[in-house]
Amino acid sequence: MVISFGRKDFDADLMWASLCSSYSAGFLLTCSTGRGEELRSEVGLAPNHAYSLMAVHEVTTAEGQVRLLQIRNPHARCAWKGAWSQRSGNWTPELRSKLRYPADDDAGMFFMAMPDFIIYFDQCTICQIHGTEWCEARVAVPLPSQEVPRSGLALEACGATAQCLVSLAQPEERARGGYFYNHLFEQLASMGLVILNMKTHPPSLVAASGLKNRGVVGTDCWLRPEDEYLLVPMCLNSGSSLSAAVAVMSSLPVVVEERSLDRQAVMFAWAAYAKSGKPADKSSLNGADLYIRISEGLVVLAENRSRGYMHVELTCESSSLQFSRGLCATVDCIAPGYAQLLQVALPSEAGASWSLSRRRWEDAWEDKGSGRMSTTKEGFGFVVLHELSKMTGMDTVPQIFVGGTFLGGCEELQRLQQSGRLIQQIESAVQAAKKRVIMCLRKRIPVPLLSGAQAFVNLPLFLDLGTCD
Known about the structure:
Keywords: Hydrolase, Protease, Thiol protease. This protein is α+β, with helices and mostly antiparallel strands.
């Protein structure tokens, strides 16, 4: 696991907790500096250099608690000159004795406080090393071009709860174009993975790895023998089709089987991933929820549990994001009781910058209709309804909106028809300049959000029946 300090979602407290637990577990820890040659040389650090992270300590001083990192320079050609360095006045004889750091130590070892560590280093790496008693399975999964992966893995613990480390790896960038991958020349694909518990209804999220342009992404989880799990690779690959590898390491035996993913499984996986973000990235309004899962890109999901129609406008500014719907700006309306994946925006290369410049949503209209209306000659407005039926190809008219104004459902439209105002309102709206007649259709119409994929179903609720200029 690589922790980059410059990421938007970087959390120093979370990194410290990860380093402490990893050090206690005996994992291999390293850290590295970036370019900034002049700045780092002034304080005794080598630019673009890897260091060994030997230990982490939390000590008590006269000023309070201090988080210290014990670092070793393998080359030992220069020494840290800042706070808590070898000749620093921060040290007391008691602390030197406790941390075994004599004043004349010249083995390339030094200590650094957490704030300085974040300033002068760029990232740290945690390599989880386990003994030979752990089980391991590796399975190849395809990452197709221009569509979402449709192959996953079923996971099942055997007999007892097992700790599991799962990773998804693609050919590294430096290996592409070489002997083994001479057909690959593109940047790394943005990918991640989701693990679902398929025994719950609907399937629930167990673990997820954020979508990143990385050679390897991964997560850890616990698998219980009474449950069934499904691993779903996440990717929107704009380059050539390639083969990735899933590695499953577990403390106890785990059965791993290849599975073809149907549309529903893929849909559940992307929806669960969208909901796996921070609580601050979720917005709620009158029973409707908007989830924005931010990693190196973003995945946006709208879920409408209210009685009204949820209207959402999104605009994302970036020159290096790949949009699942082909556009950076979207406008959608979600019916009560439905959810929709509004946008998947993934970087085409590592380090891409973007911003969600506009996010507006509201409950637009409340469904007051009590049923569907027949377009047969009986009832009302045959001429108008015949035209509506011919335009839409539908046999029923659930609701009608004119110029954005709700005219009602079955009962309301019957009253309008009886009073003679229905045809008048529709005809005046169609004839008026720049006004539209919009009908709400309660019919599930599949529209792929990802090119070539049928994993997502858009539910167009409002159909434009005509515009007069």
